[in-house]
Amino acid sequence: MTDYFLTIWSSIVETCPIGQVLFERNRVSAEPVLTRSSAKRSQKEKAILKAAEKVFAELGYAGATTQLIADAASLPKANVHYYFKTKQEIYRRVVYNIFDIWMEAAAVFDTDLGPKESLSRYIDKKMDLARSHPDGSKVWAAEIMQGAPIIQDYLEGELLEWANDRSAHIQRWIANGEMDPIDPAHLLYMIWSTTQHYADFGHQINTLNGGKPLGDAQWNAAKLSIKTVILKGVGLSVE
């Protein structure tokens, strides 16, 4: 009965302007309530986004469909349309999610830790995320390589502001003589490209590793190697 209702509701949302307005008003303005129902809703949203992350990573935005996402999430297509009105809305949420996770990893810049500890922890966290969220990283990379046709506004807003703030932190360390002079932007680019390589080019790494993913010891060795090169490159020790 629930799936039947969702199918009817999905049809109304897609074809009726009034239905779309009511859908948006209810979805945006509704206050979150910690109930079994809201918890179930949250679980379904997470399942849809996790499935979408994989579908977008494998097929790209153009190749993905809400039906494929629904199939990957083991849910009726009507459920997907109930929680997300369009494929683009799902896509933007997937991209925003991976960026939010990356921003959390950079929270170490907002502490009183110096450059050595902050950069070390940031690299460790970015490497851990490359291992735990490879599909999200691939979706981001594919979007950027195509010229960011869907999230350019996000790059010019949130990403630019965030990157400028991190660069300011690095510049203060340089001004205080805590690390060697270097263009902060290029230091960030180097960290991003190196750590995200382990997600975006995971298949290549696995192939060169005898056809299997890196083990825990290998992953830790990779993190240490990256930290050694980057930290020593800006006049910091690793120990």
Low-confidence stretches: 17-34
Separation of termini?
A: 62 Å
> CATH top level of the largest domain?
Mainly Alpha
Number of distinct helices: 12
How many domains, in number, for the residues? 2
CATH topology of the largest domain: the name is: Tetracycline Repressor, domain 2
β-strand percent reads under 5%
Shape: globular
What do you see in this structure?
Residues 42-102 form the HTH tetR-type domain. One of its GO terms (molecular function) is transcription cis-regulatory region binding. This protein has 239 residues and is mostly helical. It folds into two domains: 2-85, Arc Repressor Mutant, subunit A, CATH 1.10.10.60; 94-233, Tetracycline Repressor, domain 2, CATH 1.10.357.10. Helix content is 77%, strand content 0%. The chain has helices at 2-15, 17-29, 36-63, 66-73, 77-83, 87-105, 115-132, 134-145, 152-175, 184-200, 202-208, 216-233. α6 packs across α8. The longest helix is centred in the first third of the chain and has 28 residues, at 36-63. The chain is globular and about 60 Å long.
Provide a short characterization of the protein structure.
Keywords: DNA-binding. With 239 residues, the chain is mainly α. The protein contains twelve helices and no strands.
Protein traits:
12 helices; Tetracycline Repressor, domain 2; Arc Repressor Mutant, subunit A; globular; 239 residues; single chain
Layout: helices, strands, pairs:
Blueprint: H1 2-15, H2 17-29, H3 36-63, H4 66-73, H5 77-83, H6 87-105, H7 115-132, H8 134-145, H9 152-175, H10 184-200, H11 202-208, H12 216-233
Helix pairs in contact: 1-2, 1-5, 3-4, 3-6, 3-8, 4-5, 6-8, 7-10, 7-12, 8-10
